[in-house]
Each structure stands twice: as structure tokens, then as C-alpha cells.
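Pinned message: reference record for Fe2OG dioxygenase domain-containing protein
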Amino acid sequence: MVVLTKCELEQIALPAVQLAAPPLALVPEVDLSAVEASDAARSAAARAVAKACEDHGFFKVTGHGVLAPLLARLDAAAAAFFALPQRDKDKAAAGAGGGSPPFGYASKRIGGNGDLGWIEYLLLGVTAAGAAAAPVALSEGADSSCFRDVLDEYIAAVRRMTCTVLELVAQGLGLDDEGVFSRLVLDRDSDSLLRVNHYPARPEAAGEPAEVRRRLTGFGEHTDPQIISVLRSNDAAGLEMSLRDGTWVSVPSDTRSFFVNVGDALQVLTNGRFRSVRHRVMVSSARPRVSVIFFGGPPPRQRLAPLPGLVDREGGRRRYREFTWREYKTSAYRTKLADNRLCYFETTATAATS
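Predicted structure (C-alpha cells):
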């Protein structure tokens, strides 16, 4: 277990005492195991994916085919890494040992614009072969080698699942080219990422009544910039989503399933039909929360704009101008977590009516 000192704790902005967000009554769910059974089953899954993306911006995936033993090995490897002495984790810090910022280990600081959280994390790039581009420190020693191996195996499995989901997204939209989104993630220059998050336990929470328990911001509210993100966590609660009416709801944890979020890039490609979902992690538990997120991103050179077929359905109205993923990512890095990054890329007509 990682215990933060009082000095470190005081660096984190604490929210006011507040009640926990109410649980979401029914999380949209898609079973991928039936996709290959028949054309009818695949069509039904595609419709369910499209509806969930349009109505909520997120959904849960079951029947995903990622084997339980692999997930157990990843959980154990992540727990072992975060249990290391701080000096050892710092060897994997961004920029340390030859690593390239912003990849590597970080604690409390999220990005470079003042966002703080009750969190430590490991951010890794994903290579063309679908493996973790890990910091040098993770390549040293037998335990680190095992960590690399399980990360590589996990990324390969989750990237396959991500592409299946993206093909269903395209089919659900009625697009002729069902690989229009998945090809961006499979491209050899795809800018995909993997982040392993650890939200340390709050021992004092054990003695606090739930109705007055102070909740810390683990990861502040934001949308994901990429096409989609695919998350799995342990059984500790904390993930919250903002519904379309602005209501925040908690999402029950499910260790056997994955949660898929619409990202900003998919919002642009669908001309705003699918909107990226605002989410956050709040920490009030006496137990640590660990989550692993795969972010499916396009190549830096990729030009992003609403797909012509979807623009035609809105009478030719384009909500977003064309830009490259590199341009958008550079802009996003200049903003704070909660900012609306897409507003800078809206067409004049869209901005005027917002």
C-alpha cells in the first residue's frame, strides 16, 4: 500500500464534504461474444453500440474474450509495481533513465497545467506491434521483465477488442467502410496509449460515516481526447460519469467487464452525433483503486474532420473544421482537465449557436 505523507496530502485540493453521486441504475451493456454467431447478432450488437454512444457516450462490454488469467496477472503486476519503494518508482518517472516525457511514472500531478489528484500512475506509449513502449527502468530486472510481458500481452488483447468495438461503431452508423475507425488504431503510427492508475486508499475513511465521508479528487472531470478509451478496474468504486443533463452518477465497478468511453476524436468524426463523455474518479474508500485504460488514438499526421456521409445527413453542416491529431493533441496539452478542448475546433456557425 502506498501511504502519502501529510505534506504530500496538502498539495492536493480537497473538495467540500459532499454526498456520493447516486449509482447509475442501468449501465448500457454490449455482449461481444455473440458478434460472430450470425449477421443478425452482429447487427443487433452494432445497433446497441451506436445507441449507447449516442445516448450516454459510454457502455460496458462483456463477452470480450480477454482471458481471466491474463487479467489476474496484470492486476498482480500493477499492484507489485505500485508497492515498490518510492525511489524505485521514480526511476521510471517521465524523462528519467532516457524515457521520453510525458511517458513514465508520475504522482499527484496530472499534466503540466496545475491539475492535481489523489493518484499515481504509469503512462506508456504503444508500439506499432501493439506492445508497451515502457520506460528504461521497466526493462531492468526479472520482475520488470515480467511486467513488460504482461503489459504487451494485455495491450494486444485489448487492442483487438477495441478494433472490434470500432467496427461495430461504424456498422451502427450505417457506414459502408466498417474499418474507417479501427484502421486508425491499427496504423503503424497510431498514437495509442496505456495508463495504469493507482488511487491510494484513505485509511481514515474507514471510520467515517458514508453520508459525511470526505471525497478526494482522484482524477478530475475531463473527456478523453482520443477516439475511444477502454477501461477496466479492480472492485474499488470511484468512477463517475456525467449524463447528458449534467447529472453525475457513479458507475458500479465490474472486474469482469470493460467500460468504453467515446473520445473527442470520435465526436469530431461523427460530426457530433456521438459526444465524448465527461467523467472523473472520486476517492472515498479505505481500499485502493487500480484501473488500466487503453486509449485508441490516430496517427499524429491523421487529418480529422466529420465524415462526409455523416455530414450529408445533416444537410451538409459541418460542426468541426479539419485538423490533424498532432494539432489537437498539442492544443489539449495547453488546457486544464475540465476545459472544453473541442470548442477551439468548431466551425464558426457551430460556435455562434453554442
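Pinned by admin. Summary line: Residues 1-11 have pLDDT under 50 and may be disordered.
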